[in-house]
Amino acid sequence: MTLTDLTLVTRDEAAAPAAVACCGPLTRETISAADAEVFARRLKALADPARLRLVSIVAASDGQEACVCDLIEPVGLSQPTVSHHLKILMDAGFLTRSKRGTWAYYKLVPGSLDAAAAPLVTV
Amino acid sequence: MTLTDLTLVTRDEAAAPAAVACCGPLTRETISAADAEVFARRLKALADPARLRLVSIVAASDGQEACVCDLIEPVGLSQPTVSHHLKILMDAGFLTRSKRGTWAYYKLVPGSLDAAAAPLVTV
């Protein structure tokens, strides 16, 4: 190791002498780079207080479906902001939307929350 | 409803006449605003491909603890970038850090991933 190499690492985390075995064994498979991208995208869609509450309300509604009219007041945000969050949740595969009469209804995609939680319970 | 009111909502999501009952019953409790803030912060810390892979490697390591020297190469990022991600994971309560000799070791906080997944499996 040269001094130039050392400038790239902190003192705490500088490479040990080659004679020191640092690398512990892995006891199980880790997440692949491709899976990590997919999981991170899903979690990012949920990693917002308003979106968590919206999903929570939809999931707790009868048939896991809620009218948009039931979603705006509880989260205390404007309708355009709620619609923005709902779109992110739809794009990420957590909700589907259908229109019946005047109202739009948002339904939880079965299994989508379990799929999002999967990397956390299996890592 | 006046025309002024109508400009605040989209056509799809315009308020229905008062005579139409739109509000379905909730079948269980939903996440509170305060809990949503806490859960969202945790999920945000995990909602990154590199951080998911780092947590995954630590969790799969013997004793759920890994030397930083085992974390840099697998994720294919520079040491400063890996350290940045590790700090975010520590700040969010997923990892603790200790130094033994030359190396820093990162250990998974027991139960922290389950706590992060909780809102997804209970909503």
From TrEMBL, chains A, B:
Record Gene3D superfamilies: Winged helix-like DNA-binding domain superfamily/Winged helix DNA-binding domain
One Pfam short name: HTH_5
SMART domains on file: HTH_ARSR
InterPro entries in the record: ArsR-like_HTH, ArsR_HTH, HTH_ArsR_DNA-bd_dom, HTH_MetalResp_TranReg, WH-like_DNA-bd_sf, WH_DNA-bd_sf
PANTHER family, sorted: ARSENICAL RESISTANCE OPERON REPRESSOR (PTHR33154:SF18), TRANSCRIPTIONAL REGULATOR, ARSR FAMILY (PTHR33154)
Gene Ontology MF terms: DNA binding; DNA-binding transcription factor activity
Alphabetic keyword roster: DNA-binding, Transcription, Transcription regulation
The keyword Lipid metabolism appears for this protein: no
Limits of the HTH arsR-type domain: 31-123
Domain of life per record: Bacteria
Native species: Agromyces bauzanensis
Protein name in the entry: Transcriptional regulator, ArsR family protein
